[in-house]
Design goal:
single chain; about 150 residues; alpha+beta; Herpes Virus-1; 3-stranded antiparallel sheet; two-stranded antiparallel sheet; 3 helices; elongated; disordered C terminus
């Protein structure tokens, strides 16, 4: 490239000092092979751990959902037990699996190339002795429940 404004009348090469950085950046991107992982939406994160739910359970007294290991650890550490979101003192620490949120988390994992959640042994849907373990009613039996 010719340069007429330098007073020497000669030819000079333009140097691009940032090209080394850009080249290095492109190399790093190619080497990584992937874009940074997508962060799950807030509604799929446990309020205690701020991570994707692995085993979401509903705290029966308050209706808030937490990851099972996180809420169990929280309740062991608090005397008297309280809800982490509201600080309400709990008279029961019973939890119920949140199947809808588990299904939503699995859908998000599938859509974003993440591994689907494993069903923990303590949260598997199962029929025990002919009784639906989720609602404690015999399938197709009497009672005023939905069919």
């Amino acid at each position: 490239m010719s340069s007429s404004g330098n007073g020497s009348g000669g030819t000079k090469k333009l140097a691009f000092p940032h090209l080394g950085f850009v080249g290095g950046l492109l190399f790093a991107i190619r080497k990584a092979g992937k874009v940074t992982p997508v962060e799950p939406p807030e509604y799929l994160k446990c309020p205690i751990t701020q991570e994707l739910f692995g085993d979401p359970v509903i705290l029966s007294q308050t209706g808030y959902t937490y990851d099972r290991p996180a809420i169990e650890r929280w309740l062991r550490q608090k005397t008297p037990p309280t809800d982490p979101s509201t600080n309400v003192e709990l008279y029961t620490t019973e939890t119920v699996p949140n199947w809808a949120l588990r299904d939503a988390a699995n859908e998000w994992c599938t859509a974003n190339g993440a591994k689907p959640l494993q069903d923990p042994e303590s949260a598997k849907r199962q029929l025990a002795g002919g009784i639906n373990a989720r609602d404690r009613r015999a399938p197709g039996g009497g009672g005023g429940g939905l069919r």
